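Researcher: Next entry in the queue.
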Amino acid sequence: MRAQYTQMCREGDVETELPVGPMPWFGMDEARPAKLRYLYVHHVEEFARHAGHADIIREELDGATAGELLAAVEGWPANDYITPWRS
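Model: Structure for this entry, 87 residues:
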């Protein structure tokens, strides 16, 4: 599924129109056409939202912030703002 999605993103014509909906929670009771560029932007928004939710849950579990984890993975030295995460 991921490979198909990646291929679609690489090869898709952003001017292509695809049916979207219905989405009755937004008052859209029938499908309507939307350009592929709209779907790409929507997917970025959804991926960011869900990644953010996962990050909040993970932070509650281990206490590490994203900056601390990145510093640890990248091997950055500690500075006045970020100390690399150590479990």
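Model: Strands lie at 17-20, 32-35.
Researcher: Noted, moving on.
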